[in-house]
Amino acid sequence: MSAIEAPAPGRGPSPLGMAGRTALREGFDSTAHWLGLGEIRADREDAPLTIRLGAPGVTDVTVIDRREAEPRTHRLDPSAEDFPARLSAIRGAQAGVGAKVLLDPALCFIRSLSLPSAALPRMRAVLAQELEATTPFKPESVHSDWYVESEDVPGRMLRVRHVVVKRGRLDPLLAALAEAGIAAGPVTVGTDEARSLPIDLLSGGHHSLRGLVGPGRGNLALLAGAALLLLAAFLGFRAHQDATLSALDTAFAAARRAAGPPVPPTVQAGTAAILGRRAPPLGRTWDALAAALPDSASATDLRLDYDGAQLTLSVTDEAAALAALARVPGFGAPFLQESSSGLEGRRRLVVLLPRTDRGAQP
């Protein structure tokens, strides 16, 4: 195996990063398809440098430099240790030099498939699934691109050409170009530049981004127009929403004014009287008594009414229990109504707690 076929170490992207970029770009692909954005023939664009990789039996790499009036041709050995240095020497002191890479068709796996037209927005994903299912290639181990050869309009079918090259053949050259400071791309396939296929293997089968960043101003105008339409639709929706809410507020306010007071005065007075004669809340009173009583006292019975509470206690220390009941919120000083002997030397007390928040709404 020659050096140009050896896998490049350390070039494998993380699966998470690839998944995120793939999902983003597939969204762009679908959007570009529905917006009708055209594609750019990246394989026919002029580049300062053209690098040609011959058939598998050809070991040299041909570099054509067109930056001067007379093109210059160099033949380099990609297996040489100084291959990146020689590429850098060809680049010279000029920065931002790009190179178009032209692969011989014999280096690639090329096939034609008939697929439904409905698959066009997701063509990359469909081809990747089909490639993994019917060939020994894995999508992550190859560079690939596709284009539509023909269309059967009545049958709603497309004839698609799918071009695949192993990363082991292309990645070492891309690594050498990067080391030499040369930007690679596009990477196309053909016997010569005039008969190259309309693909860019570095696109990974995504066609929308290539069209958006290309020289076609019509695509950019369509994209800008679509963005303006979306913005106008959003602003119009918000304005309609605000106007609707304002109209509802005005209608509710007018309806309340027309209906008069929410409750007649006689009903309000009756409600206040009923609430004023209610006993204190049972649960809140039990909680207050439990918090106030010492451990030596326990309540066995509680009766509540408008005037207060009648509490039956079982205590060992009568004075301590009465002193504790004086601190119950919402009630006055306790009045000992009855005191008698209980079981096991305890005292049974009946205590009245007058209510101090009489009339307050609980």
From TrEMBL:
Listed InterPro entries: ATPase_NBD
Region Disordered, residue ranges: 1-20
Superkingdom of source: Bacteria
Designated name of the protein: Fimbrial assembly family protein
Organism (species): Methylorubrum aminovorans
